[in-house]
């Protein structure tokens, strides 16, 4: 399935809080930029980063997106992460869609460079479900 | 070879961040090991973090079975204003306060 909730753009980026199973078998979490393209969610991280290793070891993931207008509530995306091609992610950063954060051009260029040099990798998260969490 | 810059916050900065953060993402694992997450109200007083979950929150139910959790929150007006914390620990027996095992902080302003 694809994302289908008012807090999740069809195309554009949002801040996600990604929960994964860590090396010790306990939950760990990361704030990340989640890139939606056509309702599909992708993230990028350094290939050597612990979060990349955790996702390669256990692809199950939960990504929470808070409502910017009321951070007591949001949605939780449940899915599985798999390595994906980097070109789609790079194109998405240049699409001009909704942006989660105002990121300086030099930082965007560094991300693109690290993707092209294979230091960073992209994961596509196949979405199983999206449910509302927090205050009702 | 470039040195990695220290972007951690000072303890007073962490205290101030936690005191002004009203909510936090709470992550846990369900009985099958799937990561689950929710949003909970957070308070910070006398060096102790406390969580209040919405009624019948499924993550709170999972924490009754396995109290290990992580809490994540950040502020992100712009890239160099990103500040946040990642807390690893467990929910105490009172089902409210956190026993903190590790706290990681970050302030992207230190990357300028």
UniProtKB/TrEMBL annotation, chain A:
Organism of this sequence: freshwater metagenome
Gene3D superfamilies: Electron Transport, Fmn-binding Protein, Chain A
InterPro entries reported for this sequence: Split_barrel_FMN-bd
Descriptive protein name: Unannotated protein
TrEMBL record, chain B:
InterPro entries hit by this protein: Split_barrel_FMN-bd
Name of the protein described by the UniProt record: Unannotated protein
Organism: freshwater metagenome
């Amino acid at each position: 399935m694809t994302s289908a909730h008012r807090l999740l753009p069809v195309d554009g980026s949002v801040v996600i809080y990604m929960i994964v199973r860590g090396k010790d078998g306990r939950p760990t979490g990361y704030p990340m930029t989640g890139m939606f393209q056509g309702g599909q969610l992708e993230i990028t991280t350094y290939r050597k980063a612990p979060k990349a290793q955790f996702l390669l070891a256990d692809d199950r993931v939960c990504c929470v997106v808070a409502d910017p207008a009321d951070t007591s509530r949001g949605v939780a995306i449940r899915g599985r992460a798999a390595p994906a091609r980097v070109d789609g992610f790079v194109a998405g950063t240049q699409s001009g869609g909704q942006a989660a954060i105002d990121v300086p051009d030099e930082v965007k260029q560094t991300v693109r460079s690290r993707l092209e040099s294979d230091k960073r990798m992209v994961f596509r998260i196949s979405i199983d479900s999206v449910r509302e969490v927090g205050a009702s | 070879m470039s040195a990695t810059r220290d972007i951690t916050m000072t303890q007073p900065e962490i205290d101030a961040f936690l005191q002004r953060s009203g909510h936090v993402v709470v992550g846990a694992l369900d009985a099958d090991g799937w990561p689950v997450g929710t949003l909970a109200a957070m308070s910070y007083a006398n060096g102790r973090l406390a969580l209040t979950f919405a009624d019948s929150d499924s993550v709170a139910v999972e924490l009754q079975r396995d109290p290990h959790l992580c809490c994540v929150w950040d502020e992100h007006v712009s890239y160099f204003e990103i500040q946040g914390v990642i807390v690893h620990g467990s929910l105490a027996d009172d089902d409210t306060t956190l026993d903190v095992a590790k706290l990681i902080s970050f302030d992207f302003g230190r990357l300028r």
